[in-house]
Structures are given as structure tokens and as C-alpha cells.
Amino acid sequence: MAVFKLDNVEDLYAIGNVLGSGHFGQVREVRERATGVLWAGKFLKLKKGAGSRLGLERKSVEKEVEILQSLQHQNIMALKDVFESRAELVLIIELIKGGELFDFIAEKENLTETEAIEFMKQILEGVSYMHQKYVAHFDLKPENIMLSDKHAPNPDIKIIDFGMAHRFIQGEEYKSLGGTPQYIAPEIINYEPLSTAADMCLSGLSPFQGETDEETLRNIVAMNYEFEPHYFSQTSNMAKDFIQKLLVKDQSERITAEECLVHPWIKPLNRTQIAK
Ligand SMILES: COc1cc(-c2ccc3ncc(-c4cccc([C@@H](O)NCCN(C)C)c4)n3n2)ccc1O
User: Fold this and answer.
1) Spatial contact of 180 and 141, defined as CB atoms under 8 Å apart
2) Which SS3 state, helix, strand or coil, does residue 186 take?
């Protein structure tokens, strides 16, 4: 069993405002007393006993921490420290001040393909790095892609929330039913053995969105999508080719993050190839 710092987290950090909350627990701004530096604290309530319905299994948080401790990349949130008390674990993480990429894009009049390519390139860099370490995120979605500083000329992408992540061991079979309906891969819906390929179904606006979750899941399994003119009339053919290579039902045929980074939309062979 992993042992985390048993100090009282409040002896070292002043606990500030809630930044957000969700399945993962609560994220609060915390100030390191020794340096005055601001961090994010992810506060997780642990199950008090085997029969307890509330709180997280300690084992699942240990798994998330072990994965985070193995990842050091500029496009993946950095874990600094872990504290534990009787019924709570606190993860001290780099503070990401720029909010969600989704909101940043929504606030802009429009996003050029060049800007989209820059964000996608950073997301792919982070995803490719974790996949090379046999780690799959399994909950990549716009809300889990944040920006370091939305006022910076070229904001850094930060991938957060590794609460569903898994590190594959050679030859093992891993299945999961978790994820967010609009963004999950068909193999998850079909409860088939998974791989890092399940992370490659990330999109801004789900092309499979139905009236209900059930309809959305049916659309994903049927790979039923179209490039609606209302959204794609100004999108280049190269960008559509990139998307089509991601939205492939057979995970063994789906383009990988590494292959995406050399796709002509992301890495044009020459200037004339852009925005075709
Ligand atoms: C370690 O795991 C997580 C970290 C974070 C995290 C890490 C650093 C950090 N700096 C600022 C924030 C932040 C600021 C406002 C809202 C949120 C969060 O509640 N919403 C983000 C997406 N959400 C759907 C997970 C998070 N975060 N959030 C969020 C969820 C996690 O499961």
C-alpha cells in the first residue's frame, strides 16, 4: 500500500476557494505557506469501510497517484505532493489558471484552423507521451483540456483528471465501462478489451450527439456521423481527413496520437498544403 505524507496538509498549505468539483472530488486553490506559491489541491474523500457507498476506494486513488507520478510533460498537469488523513487524500497539483479550452474557444468570435492545429498539436503531444508510457487517460473530453493562461499569446494545453486512467501491462486484457457518453469509444460501449486507442475519439463537439445518451451510444457504435455543413462548410478537406482517420470503429485501424502528429493537417509537407 502506498504511504503518503501524514502531515496535516493545513500545516503546509492555506486552503482557499473551491475552483471546481465533480466525480473526482473537490479542487481548491491552496497557498504553500513556506513560499507563498499557489497550487491546486484535489480533496478526495475515502470510503470509511467496505460497505460504505460514499467516497472513493483508496486503491483507485493510489492508482491515479502512481500514474501521475510517472508522467512529467508540459501538456499534462504536474503532481507535486500527496497528503493523507484518516478519511481523505489531498493531491497537490500545479495550478492551471486559464480555465477549460472549451470555454476559451466559446468566448472567441471564431477559431482559425491554424489556432485549432496549435491546440490539437499540444493535446497530441501530451497524449502521445502518455501512450508511449502505456498509459491511457480514458476520460479525454473538452472539459479535461485546460489552459495554463488564456491571456498568453500561445497558451499551454494542460490535460487534467486522470481518475479513470490505466497503465497497460504487457499482455493483459483491460475492460471498462466508464467515460462520458458523447466522447467514449465504441469498444468501451461494446465492453471489448481496451487499448490506448480509446483515447483517440476526442472531439470538441461530439459528432455522435443524439437526443439522449442511448441515441448517442447507438450513433457511436454505428459510427453514424456526418460533417454538418452548418459546422464544417469552412473546414478544410485536410482537417476532415484527419477527423475521419480518428472516427474509425476498429481500434486497430484508428490513427494513433503519434501518427496524428505527422498527419499533413498537423504537419503540412509544404505551405501550399495548408487549408486545402
Ligand atoms: C488530479 O485530478 C484532477 C485535477 C484537476 C485540476 C488540477 C489543477 C487545476 N488547476 C485549476 C483547476 C480547476 C479550475 C477550475 C475548475 C476545475 C474543475 O473542477 N473543472 C475542470 C474540468 N472538470 C470537468 C474536471 C479545475 N484544476 N483542476 C481537476 C480534476 C481532477 O480530477
Assistant:
1) yes
2) helix
Strand-pair partners of 14: 31
pLDDT digits (tens, 9 = 90+) for 14-65: 999 999 998 778 999 999 999 999 999 999 999 887 777 788 889 999 999 9
For 242, list phi and psi in degrees, rounded to 5.
Answer: -60, -50
What span, in angstroms and rounded, lies between the C-alpha atoms of 136 and 165? 6
Cα–Cα distance for residue pair 148/127, rounded to 1 Å: 17
Give the pLDDT confidence of 199-217 residue by residue, as tens digits: 998 666 667 778 898 898 8
Q: How many CB atoms lie within 10 A of CB 211?
A: 7
Q: Which of 102, 141, 147, 161 to mutate to test the pocket of ligand 1 (most atoms within 8 A of CB)?
A: 161
Spatial CA neighbour of 143 closest among 90, 178, 104, 201: 104
Distance, in Å, from the CA atom of 142 to the CA atom of 203, rounded to the nearest integer, reads: 7
> In the annotation, is 81 catalytic?
no
Q: Please name the helix (run of DSSP H) or strand (run of DSSP E) that holds residue 243, with its range, or none.
A: helix 237-246
Q: Sign of torsion, CA 217 218 221 223?
A: negative
Predicted-assembly ipTM surpassing the 0.95 threshold: no
**CB 264 near ligand 1, within 6 Å:** no
- Give the number of residues written for the chain: 276
Cβ of 217: how many Cβ atoms within 10 Å? 19
Q: What is the DSSP letter of 64?
A: H
| 88-133 pLDDT tens trace | 999 999 999 999 999 998 898 788 899 999 999 999 999 999 999 9
Residue with CA nearest ligand 1 atom 30: 161
Nearest ligand 1 atom to the CA of 91 is 1
Decide whether any atom of ligand 1 lies within 6 Å of the 61 Cβ: no
